[in-house]
Design a protein that fits this description.
By secondary structure, this protein is mainly α. It folds into two domains: 11-76, Orthogonal Bundle (Arc Repressor Mutant, subunit A); 79-121, no CATH class. It is 60% helix and 6% strand. The chain has helices spanning 11-24, 37-44, 48-60, 78-104, 109-121; strands at residues 64-67, 71-74. The protein has a two-stranded antiparallel sheet. It starts with 10 loop residues before the first helix and ends in a 5-residue tail after the last helix.
Length: 126
């Protein structure tokens, strides 16, 4: 996890978002233990209650479960649920802006996809 914190958002929320990113990126998988509250608090010089609040949001969202005396663990299917939610958010909020920019610039989606494929494969059309 990145030790830098953004001033615009509560730290507990940023911590929650970082764990979500770790789940989405596959760093944390189903059944994996989250770093302990004590370790995260010590490593990032945070109040343990701040860490616990961030973790509690994950529990409240059903992404993580508390196992008394053992810690917190990623729930089965958490990544799948997060991907579904993120895809929905992207399609509702981000895609309309991207599409408007594409149209404003007179670009074609198919051409952009082809350019990206060529770029990824190392083909240079210039």
């Amino acid at each position: 996890m990145d030790p830098k914190w953004n001033e615009d958002q509560p730290i507990y929320r940023q911590l929650r978002d970082r764990v979500v990113a770790m789940i989405l990126e596959g760093i944390l998988g189903d059944g994996d233990a989250l770093p302990s509250v004590r370790n995260v608090a010590a490593e990032y010089r945070l109040n343990p209650l701040t860490v616990l609040k961030g973790y509690q949001e994950l529990v409240d969202e059903g992404l993580v479960e508390k196992k008394r005396g053992r810690g917190m663990f990623v729930n089965e299917g958490a990544r799948k649920e997060l991907l579904k939610a993120e895809r929905g958010r992207f399609l509702d909020k981000e895609w309309p802006k991207v599409l408007a920019t594409i149209e404003r610039l007179g670009l074609e989606v198919g051409d952009l996809v082809q350019q990206q494929i060529e770029k990824d494969s190392g083909v240079d059309n210039d």
